[in-house]
Amino acid sequence: MLRVRGLRTELRTPRGDLVPVNRVDVELGQGRSLGVVGESGCGKSMLALSLMGLIPDPPARITAGEILFKGRDLRGLSNKEFRKIRGRDMAMIFQEPMTALNPVLSVGKQVREALGPEPGNRLHVDDQVQTLLGRVGLPEPKRLMRAYPHELSGGMRQRVVIAMALARGPDLVLADEPTTALDATVQSRIIDLLGDLQREQGAALLLISHDLGVVARACERVAVMYAGSMVEKAGARDLFAQPLHPYTRGLMDSLPSLSRGGETSLSVIPGQVPDLAAMPRGCPFHPRCAEAMQRCRTEFPPMLGKGQDREVRCWLYERA
């Protein structure tokens, strides 16, 4: 369904050319799910916008790599051609529903627009809108069509955004932090909803999140991003059972756990994600890594295969 090779996205700024997405490879089959995790600022959202053709050009531009969607290279499409694909073939669930929805348009009008420019008879379209709102678990869809975003709770707004993304039955859904700012109960319902709709429609799901628990629950495979690059890719069960990259291990160790017994303090990864305008030489993680070698400080590591369907970008595994 989706195959990305060597993707590089650059931003022209007064501080120079920044690279928020660097040498990214992604594969996602029909009906499959992939979670992309990492700290804030690691490039997850910029990756999604790059795949959807939504990066503002200028200042942003894709400078290398290919994005193959159902065998078609999206990089060669004009804006007009890309608009025909968005919504119909691939759709995006944005991070904050209050900013993704138009505050001065009713819910019904916004979902109608998501169905396409010429969806057909008005009564038939309203029936489709009500069906969509019902499918995502919203009560009284007929009444909600007349409501405005500010009249809904955060969880309800997120369900409206999901209904809009799925309105035309896309083959690929990109969900960018779909549970941000929602309480734990609503988060759980949204993740269950995405899984149910994915199975019903046979769509591929690329889920972006900083919440490891959400990704563990929703995705078959996981890719870990750091400073614009993917540092580890594996099946979800393997990655959570035995993380390989020092950064992935640090993320896992920072999670609270019932098995810690009387311990009250959590492990932390020292330092912070590097400034894109002052990236370190070699492996971007080496200033924060307790296992860094001299080579890590001078050479950017390649992705190294570690068994079936597992890769890690770390010099520690070159000879392992």
Structure description:
There is one protein chain. A hairpin with a 2-residue loop joins β1 and β2. The protein is built from 11 helices and 12 strands. The protein is α/β, with parallel strands linked by helices and 320 residues long. The strands form 2 sheets. Strands 6-7-8-3-9-10-12-11 form an 8-stranded mixed sheet, sandwiched between helices. It has a 4-stranded antiparallel sheet with strand order 2-1-4-5, with helices on one face. The longest helix has 18 residues. α4 packs parallel to α7 and α7 packs parallel to α8.
Q: What kind of sheet is the major sheet? A: 8 strands, mixed
How many DSSP-defined strands? 12
Average residue-wise pLDDT: 89
User: Percent helix among the residues?
Assistant: 25-40%
- Model regions low in confidence, pLDDT < 50 over at least 5 residues: none
Form type = globular
Query: Which strands sit side by side, in order, in the main sheet?
Result: 6-7-8-3-9-10-12-11
Q: With helices defined by DSSP (H or I, 4 residues minimum), what is the helix count?
A: 11
The SS-based structural class is: alpha/beta
Ends apart, CA distance between termini: 32 Å
Give me the Rg, rounded.
Answer: 21 Å
Annotation keywords:
eight-stranded mixed sheet, alpha/beta, about 325 residues
Topology at a glance:
Layout: E1 2-13, E2 16-28, E3 33-37, H1 44-51, E4 60-69, E5 72-73, H2 79-85, E6 90-93, H3 97-100, H4 107-114, H5 122-135, H6 141-144, H7 154-165, E7 172-176, H8 184-201, E8 204-209, H9 212-218, E9 221-226, E10 229-235, H10 236-241, H11 246-253, E11 304-305, E12 311-312
Parallel strand pairs: 3-8, 3-9, 6-7, 7-8
Antiparallel strand pairs: 1-2, 1-4, 4-5, 9-10, 10-12, 11-12
